[in-house]
């Protein structure tokens, strides 16, 4: 399953995802969840809204450690950095094309 957790409102994310929204099983906005990243509560609420009960099967992928990966880690999620800005993170990929191989090896 594929989800997007966004710090925006529903109207704006519809414009952003125009033509590809169907690729996501869930799109959860801060407007809907009532919490903004980097608050860990944003992740707790979003994953609750998605019905996630076992975090072992969730991997949070982002290019932004401070807004996404740190708080996602704080709530017990596995994380992967898409390294666009020379950040340092334990598990990282250079592009989404490397993601599947990285997930299989970690």
Give a nutshell description of this structure:
With 106 residues, the chain is of the alpha/beta class. The chain is 36% helix and 18% strand. It has helices at 10-16, 30-33, 40-49, 65-74, 99-105; strands spanning 3-6, 26-29, 59-62, 78-82, 92-93.
Question: What does this protein look like?
Answer:
- The chain is an alpha/beta fold and 106 residues long.
- It contains 5 helices and 5 strands.
- A 3-stranded parallel β-sheet has the order 3-4-5, covered by helices on one side.
- The longest helix is centred in the middle third of the chain and has 10 residues.
- The two termini are 18 Å apart.
- The mean pLDDT is 95.
Approximate helicity band: 25-40%
- Total of helices: 5
Give the structural class: alpha/beta
pLDDT average, as an integer? 95
Q: What is the 3D shape?
A: globular
| Gap between N and C termini | 18 Å
